[in-house]
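QUALITY CONTROL LOG
STEP: pairwise intake check
CHECKER ROLE: data steward
CRITERIA: each record must contain a sequence immediately followed by its structure tokens, with no blank fields

ENTRY 1 OF 2
RESULT FIELD BELOW
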Amino acid sequence: MNIETLSSKELIVLISLCGYEDKAKGIGDGMFPNRTEFFWRDYSEKALELLLEKEWIDEDHIVSEWLQDFIHEYIQARSIIRAINRDRNETLIFRRLKNGTWLREHIFMKDEDHKMTILLHADLNKEIASFYQYSNIREAADVSFTLSDDQFAAMSKKSGVRKIRRAAGFAPQEREAFDQFNRSLDKRDRLLDSVSFLTVDEEYQDTHLNKVIFHLPAEEGVWVITYSNASKVEFNLLSLEGWLHTLEIKSQMEWREDDV
């Protein structure tokens, strides 16, 4: 692959030029919501200038063949992993390619840069661990508690914590675990990191969320938050190794035959 870094504007325009206008619009609206037509016209013109300078398109805006192949693989990936680092405002996306390798896309929201590299399947967990850089964490105690889906949603605001604590009916050990989690959440401005596992329906191009794992570093381990069913959310304090084990890729996604 002859590409390492793309700006957001270059990527969006390339996707559109390669025949995926709806996809380009969806990505653009997701990154820059509620923008005017003037914004998008100016945005596209600047992107075209950059692409012409790099000779990735010609004067007729025809995309180079090698770059068309790259965009097709990028859009047609059926299995996707998305990791979000709230603290650094960065996103890491892995797209499974036809040959079984993965396209690693590191998105720097502040600079609007997308850095691309190809990875082997065996390197995924190491890349995710490096992305979060959790460090100086002591061995975790074996503590856990459970909330309802609504209670979990209310945890994003500190004002609701006391009410949740009273209503949850915790045993003493669970109450202490809840308080410990809340202290860790305060230190991170009540923001959770997450890793999502998605598949794309080939016929309808719909994206389905298979599973999402929320996580939060603590002084003693990493809090891992998962949905046990439609209405219950489980909170477990795990070691670094235990957290990484929950991210084991093979256990989270079903591979399609055409992905390998």
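ENTRY 2 OF 2
RESULT FIELD BELOW
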Amino acid sequence: MTHIDPVWKLLITTGFCGGLTTFSTFSLEVVYLLQDGRVVWAITNMLLNLAGSLAMTLLAFMLVRAFYGQ
């Protein structure tokens, strides 16, 4: 296996683990809402999380293009 720079290793590990815990928290919140019978809130939570994720991804692409002209 090739040597991985410690900085990249930290960034990859942190990003991966951070993504897993964020998704786990999101899933747990939805499950709790469904168990409480709050189906509308669970669906709203899912839709707002999805819309927010897509909006922030789009914003990131726009910022990269604005700053780097790509």
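INTAKE CHECK: passed for both entries
DESCRIPTIVE NOTE, ENTRY 2: The chain has one domain: 6-68.
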